[in-house]
Amino acid sequence: MNHSPNDFTAGSLAGTFAERLIAWQAEHGRHDLPWQNTRDAYRIWLSEIMLQQTQVATVIPYYTRFLERFPDVAALAGAAQDDVMALWSGLGYYSRARNLHRCAQVVVAEHGGRFPSDPEALASLPGIGRSTAAAIAAFAYDAHAAILDGNVKRVLARVFGIEGFPGTPKIEREMWTLAETLLPERDLPAYTQGMMDLGATLCGRGKPRCGECPFDSDCVAHATGRERTLPTSKPKKAQPERYVDVLVIGAGERVLFERRPDSGIWGGLWSLPELTPPTDAPDADDAALRARLSAHAAALGAEEGTVQSLEPLQGLTHVFTHFRLHLRPWQVTLATPGETRTSASPSNGARHAWLDAAGVAAAGLPSPIRKITDALSIGSPNDGQLSLPT
DNA sequence: AAACCGTGGAA
DNA sequence: TTTCCAAGGTT
User: How is the cofactor bound, as the UniProt entry phrases it (predicted)?
Assistant: First the structure.
């Protein structure tokens, strides 16, 4: 690093880094977020997991709903995974939800229902890494531990003039060391919140308000006009395109859904059946494709009836962090000779489920799949009735 | 070590 | 429109 933390005591403003940050937080920081003003480790843990790679405004409604349904760790530990996934549906990074569920069960089974106060013990739990462990331990138990999230990386890169993409092990090690060096002896919750608040407000990614910053006179980036080039951005690479055909198979008042494996994209969620795994080139809309689609639908829906019609629906493109997925839905109508015998809600561990409108509304679906069902008014909030043309 | 894992808001 | 990335962790 170009600067040592001790340089702050020599700045024109009095006080150490931590003292200035804590004073700034008391005056200008955030104090009324839903997960603040509590020492309940369960609530703090839940917020930290939801906030991983996710903005505050996005998390708030999910957090509120989740707490209403699962007010404590025992309630969450005893829940069915499908119910947890349904409440997480739309929030993304679904391994967080599965790890959250597993973590609750470990806390109940191995820690008597109380979260450990030791950051290392916390970090050994599913879904809790070094930074999240430190945040929980600091907020709930006043632990002397440093966080290193995106906010802290940005603040440190700018104030100390640290060059290099913070995602690399070398820069990250350097930042962990610095973050721990800067820790105060006391007021860990205010200090930790201050790091987050400074990075999320004044020292944001876009246009930092250096005039209001407590480190204005000492900030290397500000002094050298590098506010916009620090932290060094991630090296970018071309995003692959992927194409997939999905089937909306309707029989009577129900539609067929397929549970995705825990590993991979949308792990543990309910989705529409795919013809084949995604490919790197679009399928041509030709007779051979239609024949394959029809055969696949017939195999999946054999118990319910025979394929009566096959129609292409409006396609859509979904953008992920590391690729773009082009979804082409096909509507398949089955001629049903008799009663549909299958259940309306997914049974535990089943790979397929015929869901009615209420079942679709309650299921954990990926966002773009929800868009498709909404467009067809299947289980959408406005229209609880299934209205597939027959 | 580098890839993988969602979604939506902001510029 | 495109690009970036947010209270990161796991493999």
Answer: Binds 1 [4Fe-4S] cluster.
**pTM value surpassing 0.85:** yes
pLDDT of residue A345: 74
Distance CA A274, CA A290 (A): 14
Nucleotide in closest CA–C1' contact with A325: B6
Give me A173's structure tokens. Answer: 């090690």
Q: How far is CA A94 from the centre of its chain?
A: 6
Residue A48 CB closer than 7 angstroms to strand C? yes
Separation of CA A368 and C1' C5 in angstroms? 20
Half-sphere exposure of A172 (CA within 13 A, CB side): 9
- Asked if residues A303 and A218 have their Cβ atoms less than 8 Å apart, the reply is no
Residue ranges of chain A whose pLDDT lies below 70 = 1-15, 338-344, 380-390
Domains and CATH numbers, chain A: 7-149+183-196 (1.10.340.30), 241-375 (3.90.79.10)
